[in-house]
Each structure stands twice: as C-alpha cells, then as structure tokens.
UniProtKB/TrEMBL annotation:
Keyword vocabulary terms for this entry: FAD, Flavoprotein, Oxidoreductase
Family recorded in the similarity comment: Belongs to the FAD-binding oxidoreductase/transferase type 4 family.
The keyword Zinc belongs to this UniProt entry's keyword annotation: no
Gene Ontology MF annotations: D-lactate dehydrogenase (cytochrome) activity; FAD binding
Domain FAD-binding PCMH-type: start-end pairs: 73-252
Stored PROSITE patterns: FAD_PCMH (PS51387)
Recorded catalytic activity of this chain's protein: (R)-lactate + 2 Fe(III)-[cytochrome c] = 2 Fe(II)-[cytochrome c] + pyruvate + 2 H(+)
Protein's UniProt name: FAD-binding domain-containing protein
Cofactor: FAD
Gene3D superfamilies to which the protein is assigned, alphabetical: 3.30.465.10, 3.30.70.2190, 3.30.70.2740, Vanillyl-alcohol Oxidase, Chain A, domain 4
Gene source species: Athelia psychrophila
Length: 510
C-alpha cells in the first residue's frame, strides 16, 4: 500500500490511461490456511513465514519483507515464502496460478520505487535462500548463479579469478543479482561496461503458470529467434521470477585510481566531461556528479572522507572521476597530466582536485558519492526521481524543483529540508532527491506531475535506472508512447493472463 496517497487518486488524475486497459481480471485471492498447508508439503518449515496456518509467525517477523528500504511503501502480506530451489519456486507459482494468488518476487528489497512489497493481498516470494554459485568459467568470465546471490558476494567470488562484476551500486551488500536483473540496475560502472541488457548472457525464469524457462546458456552468441531473456531484464517481476542468471564478468582492471574535483559552477561540468573524455579516453571508467547539497549531506552523515575546508570553499558541485586500466604508471601519469592541465588552464574549470593515494582513500572518495543515498535516508524522508535529461539541464531541473517547492511554501525545516542533484553524468542520469521531514500529500502534489512534465518537456525519461514499480505506473505515459504502452500490456496479458505476477507494478492493467 502506498504510504502517501491512494492508488485511486492516481488513476483519476490521468484518465487517458484507461484507454489501454485490458479486460479487467477477476480479483486475486488471499492466502488461506489451506494454501499454507499446501506449501508445507514441499517447503521446509523455515521457508514459510506466515501469520496464518497451524504454526503462525508473529507479524513483526514479516515486517522486513513488507516495508521497503525507504520506509515509503509498505505491504500487508500474511505470508512470505523463501524457497531453496527452482523446483520449489515452480511448485509455489503453479499453485498460485491455479488459485489466482498474487506474488511479489523479492530480492534484497533495496528497490527505490516500491516494486518489491505488496500493494494488495499478494504473498511475498523472497529469493534469499537461493544463493549458490552454479558455475564460473575463468576463461570466458561467464558466471552462472542463483538469483538470490548478493551482488557483493559475487564480486568477492570472482575477485580471486581476477574478474569483477559488470555492475556496482551502493546497495551491493544487500541487493541480489536477480533483483539487479529484474530492475535492469545501472549503477556506477555502466559508463564502462554497459547495461545488463548486454552483459546478461542467459536466464532461468519461472513463468506465471509455474513452468520453468531454461535459457541459462553460457554461449556468447546465440541467434536463434527472439531474445526472450531481454523481456525479463527490467520487467520488475511482472512477467516471471528469475531464478538463475548467467552473466559475463569482465577482467579486473590492473589499476584503478580516482580523483574528486571541486567545481566553482555547474556550467563547467559539461566542458569538464569533454576534456576528461578526451584526455583519459580508454581508461575513463566513471564520471559521477554530486552537487554541494548532496556533498554536505554525505559529509554530515559520515560517508567517506571529507575534503579540507580550503578544498571545498567556493565549490558549487563535485565530480568524481575514476580510471581503470592495465598499467598503474601509465594511468597515474594520464591522471596527473589531466589534473595539471585543469589547474593551470587560463580559465580553470575546477577549483581543486583531490587524488586518492592508496586503496583506503580510493574507497573513501567513492563513499562520498555512493553514500549519498544512505546519508539522505538518515536525514529524512526522500522523494526520489531518477531521471534521464540532457546533461546541460541537470542544475536547472534541481533549481526549478526547489523554486516550485518554495513557491508552494514548502521549503522550510518542517516540510522540505533539501533539494539536491547527483548521479551518473556519464550516462545522462540525474538523481533528483527531495528530502522532507515526512511524506505528505502536499509535497507529493507540489512535485507531481510537475517533475514528470518537466522531464517530458526535456524529452527525458521518468526512470533512467530504478524502474517504475508502484511509484510511477501513472507516469509511464510521460516516457512511453501510447503504442508502446499498448504493446507492453499485450505482452503482459499474453504471458500472465491471470495477472498474478507483481500486480499493480509497472503497468496499470485495469
Ligand atoms: P528488490 O528491491 O527486492 O526488488 C526490486 C524489483 O525487482 C521488484 O519489482 C521485485 O519484484 C523485482 N525482483 C526482485 N528479485 C526478482 C527476481 N528474482 N525475479 C523477478 N523479479 C524480481 N539502482 C540502480 O539502478 N543504480 C544504483 O546505483 C542504485 N543504487 C542504490 C543504492 C542504494 C543505497 C539503494 C538502497 C538502492 C540503489 N538502487 C540502485 C536501487 C536498485 O534497483 C537496487 O538496489 C537493486 O537492483 C534491487 O535489487 P534487490 O535485490 O534489492 O531487488
Ligand atoms: C545512486 O546512483 C543510486 O546512488 C541511488 O541510484 C540514487 O538514492 C538515489 O536517488
Ligand atoms: Zn544511480
């Protein structure tokens, strides 16, 4: 259930979406005692958490599965199932299909759009007990793993083989590879290694009727008809449950360096990006942006190493540049030359740059950027918009949003405390965060559809990487044409005609 406003209100506000509605499915059924007894026939007792049935679990034990990471979305699932094998997942789904019970596939529950918790009477199917690596080929770098493997544990697994995962994100200690694939997570390495649509080689998926689609190939090339796995990458659990992932892991770079650059004006970011790309070329692996508000908040909440006062003085924003290459001396030389050129230019684009000198400093500089989400959550309640807009408009979008809240009388310590921007400049992805004391309908109404209209006017996307979830179903039309939405609904209807897979997420079906 949404904490801050009702679904009905969202529907009324955008009546045109009804044009595409498929025939309304019959309502989904709630889990009964008989259902729980059925699951107990093939699941271990520890795989069933249910407040109903012969041995009820206290509802407090279900709360971590019912509440999302931000404390913004919450569900009321009575039953959480944690299967250990694909066959168990298949049996659960087959039963839910026959009984018309809704299922919310859940990974690490770190999603930021309310996709991983129920909105009605669905059960939660958590993949946390499926966490085995199935195979790794150190020659091809192809890793095959259960969907429930934590991203960090996979990074640790491939590290001794001199490989890395092609994605990295702040939630790596909790998010699962299945959740990453289901959300098509972007993160900090996309600039270098591209999206999961490229690095995922194959998938094993339990379809809504319980059948198992085994496309867990380790072939780099397979051109035999439709590339079905792509449908599940970014489907946010609405088309099936990913149980296994085959993914290409790149060779670990022999040398990684980073530097944080303090800029006097946002206007310098674009020319800086051009210069950095030109000078660092093949060794550039990340170009991340944080504005001053985001930086100050990261420091306030102890994320990473704060720069000295003289280093941050006069800085309007910061850019973190990472290089990853094959030879440390060569990369360091290039980075040092870049810094020198930047600092000695007639009209310098930066005030200063702080280069990491050792692995601890390297991690600490990254923490300033990666830790912003954590810092924001410590500061208050966050309204998060992960948008794609032209890079030149990043600051303007943040400023216009702040002005909008000011004009509505909502920019003060008891309502909205901060409006900030940070994100993946290299990918044109801005994270606009509005940090408030609490989630309130007044704030929601002030920023929506304002932000979506602004994004649409800039021909951007309402979701660059976090997805649609429960949060943006009503906003999908700002970024997808009528024809595209109609086709998406037809695909959903074809694959999940009973509407049991993550109902109410991504698409409004009735
Ligand atoms: P969950 O949150 O459990 O689920 C997310 C969605 O995927 C839900 O719709 C769920 O139903 C579905 N799902 C989960 N597992 C499966 C499965 N096995 N099969 C089918 N559907 C499934 N995202 C980015 O893109 N880039 C970032 O840089 C980034 N940084 C983050 C930093 C922090 C601190 C946090 C809290 C989140 C961040 N995110 C980021 C959000 C993000 O989407 C992820 O954290 C991650 O990809 C979600 O994985 P998860 O296992 O937690 O999935
Ligand atoms: C990031 O890039 C994540 O740090 C999270 O995508 C962004 O919290 C956010 O808004
Ligand atoms: Zn991001």
């Amino acid at each position: 259930m949404l904490a801050s406003r009702s679904v009905t209100r969202q529907l009324v506000r955008n009546p045109r979406r009804w044009n595409h509605a498929a025939a309304a499915s019959p309502p989904l059924n709630s889990v009964t005692e008989q259902d729980v007894a059925h699951f107990a026939k093939f699941l271990a007792p520890t795989s069933i958490l249910s407040t109903i049935g012969s041995t009820p679990t206290p509802s407090s034990e279900l709360s971590i599965y019912n509440n999302d990471w931000m404390g913004k979305y919450y569900g009321k699932a009575t039953t959480v199932l944690k299967p250990k094998t694909t066959e168990e997942v298949s049996k659960i789904v087959k039963h839910c299909w026959e009984r018309r019970i809704g299922i919310v596939p859940q990974g690490g529950n770190t999603g930021l759009v309310g996709g991983s918790v129920p909105i009605g009477n669905e059960l939660v199917l958590n993949l946390g007990n499926m966490s085995k690596v199935r195979s790794f080929d150190p020659v091809s770098g192809i890793l095959v793993a259960d969907a429930g493997c934590i991203l960090q544990s996979l990074t640790d697994y491939v590290a001794p083989h001199n490989h890395i995962m092609p994605l990295d994100l702040g939630a790596k200690g909790s998010c699962q590879i299945g959740g990453n694939v289901a959300t098509n997570a972007g993160g900090l390495r996309l600039l270098r290694y591209g999206s999961l649509h490229g690095s995922v080689i194959g998938l094993e998926v339990v379809l809504p009727d319980g059948s198992i689609m085994d496309q867990l190939t380790t072939l780099r090339k397979d051109n035999t008809g439709y590339d079905l796995k792509q449908l599940f990458i970014g489907a946010e659990g609405t088309l099936g449950i990913i149980t296994g992932v085959s993914i290409l892991t790149p060779s670990a770079p022999q040398a990684s360096n980073n530097v944080i650059l303090a800029l006097p004006h946002f206007d310098n970011v674009l020319p800086l990006f051009k210069q950095v790309k030109k000078e660092l070329s093949e060794i550039l692996s990340a170009f991340e942006f944080i504005d001053r508000t985001a930086y100050d908040l990261a420091v306030k909440h102890g994320q990473g190493r704060a720069l000295n006062d003289d280093e941050v003085e006069g800085a309007q924003c910061f850019v973190l540049v990472e290089t990853s290459g094959g030879k440390r001396e060569h990369d360091e030389e290039k980075l040092n030359d870049l810094l020198e050129n930047l600092l000695t230019a007639d009209e310098p684009l930066i005030n200063t740059g702080v280069l990491s000198q050792n692995p601890a400093q390297f991690s600490s500089l990254w923490a300033l950027r990666e830790g912003v989400t954590e810092a924001v959550s410590k500061e208050g309640k966050a309204y998060k918009y992960d948008i794609s807009v032209p890079l030149a408009t990043f600051k303007d979008v943040v400023d216009q949003t702040r002005e909008r809240l000011r004009s509505k009388g909502l920019l003060h310590d008891d309502a909205v405390m901060h409006v900030m921007g940070y994100g993946h400049v290299g990918d044109g992805n801005l994270h606009l965060n509005i940090v408030a004391k609490a989630y309130t309908p007044e704030i929601t109404d002030a920023i929506e559809p304002f932000i979506y209209e602004l994004v649409a006017s800039l021909k951007g996307s309402v979701s660059a990487e976090h997805g649609i979830g429960a949060m943006k179903t009503h906003a999908l039309h700002y970024s997808k044409s009528d024809v595209s939405i109609k086709l998406m609904k037809q695909i959903k209807q074809l694959m999940d005609p009973r509407g049991i897979m993550n109902p109410g997420k991504v698409l409004e079906m009735n």
